[in-house]
Design a protein that fits this description.
Blueprint (H helix, E strand, L loop, with lengths): L1 E2 L15 E2 L6 H11 L1 H18 L2 H13 L6 E6 L6 H20 L4 E5 L13 H7 L4 H7 L5 E5 L4 H8 L10 H6 L3 E4 L10 H10 L4 E3 L2 H10 L5 E3 L39 H12 L2
Helix pairs in contact: 1-11, 3-4
Length: about 290
């Protein structure tokens, strides 16, 4: 662990006094060289890991875990899921999987659940939304519907970076025909459950203050690392792990990507992530050029 670089810090989110996992000196270069020289070994390791992931992190297993963690707290059988399911971010991908899990589980099990959705719309995009039918079925359609829902006891799961509970209503968009309502949906709930992902060794004080204010019945995280951080920073709130859903989307019908160069006879290193300072592309490119540019 090392302090977060200044260019990756974000006010109220990635804070200066926090640390995160950092490559050791020359580790990128060393690993690239090792993979290049022992490609067969690493390919076999990757196949073993792929088999484990596709067996142990199947939608069915994660769906059951997700639903059990939420439904175990449901004294009111009314649930609002707040998430970024309308955008293309990583949180949006995870939100769509979790929503699908709740829908499929409750439908198959015949669970009587009044289920509603609310999204802070952080980006305008035209991507194909894989759960558009579920959004149409469950999303709030108007302020009147939201206000009527809040007249009864309900549980809210807020699957967003926690600071958005303070800022979303005046920074981001809303579902069609709805006024900003994220904060009041959390405040007026009988039970509230933050669902959060974290990557440094401490939570920002703004997040801890939010949890002190809202007093969630539990916090759900997708990894053991996040669980350790949450338990260290807010030890009086129970924390449970529900992994992200990973689906095998390989298909024989996929069209190959037309690359600008021929790679059939070359050893190819693929790096796939968001193009920003947090992901360490500067270090990866530096390591690549040091090892392979000559």
């Amino acid at each position: 662990l090392k302090p977060v670089e200044q260019q990756a810090q974000m006010e109220g989110i990635i804070i200066p006094e926090s640390q995160w996992a950092y490559p050791e000196e020359k580790s990128f270069k060393k690993n690239l060289r090792s993979i290049h020289r022992s490609h067969g070994k690493y390919k076999k390791d990757a196949e073993i890991l792929q088999e484990y992931i596709l067996n142990e992190m199947t939608p069915e297993k994660i769906y059951d875990k997700m639903v059990n963690e939420i439904l175990s707290t449901l004294s009111p059988a009314d649930l609002v899921y707040i998430g970024q399911y309308r955008d293309s971010s990583g949180c949006g991908v995870a939100a769509r999987k979790y929503i699908k899990s709740l829908h499929e589980y409750t439908s198959k099990a015949g669970v009587d659940l009044n289920f509603k959705l609310y999204a802070p719309v952080a980006e305008k995009t035209n991507f194909h939304n894989s759960i558009s039918d579920l959004i149409e079925k469950y999303e709030f359609k108007s302020d009147k519907e939201i206000n009527q829902f809040m007249e009864q006891d309900y549980t809210v799961v807020w699957h967003i970076p926690s600071i958005m509970a303070m800022t979303s209503d005046f920074r981001f968009g809303t579902p069609p025909n709805c006024s900003p309502s994220l904060r009041k949906l959390i405040i007026n709930s009988k039970v509230n459950i933050p669902l959060v992902v974290w990557e440094t060794d401490i939570l920002p004080k703004e997040w801890v203050n939010l949890y002190d204010y809202h007093r969630p019945s539990k916090i759900i995280v997708p990894s053991d690392w996040s669980k350790k951080v949450v338990e260290k920073c807010v030890p009086d709130i129970p924390c449970d792990v529900v992994r992200h859903v990973i689906e095998d989307t390989l298909s024989d019908n996929c069209e190959p990507v037309a690359l600008p160069i021929q790679v059939e006879d070359k050893f190819v290193i693929l790096a796939m992530s968001q193009w920003n300072n947090r992901k360490g592309f500067d270090k990866l490119i530096e390591a690549f050029t040091m090892e392979f540019s000559h």
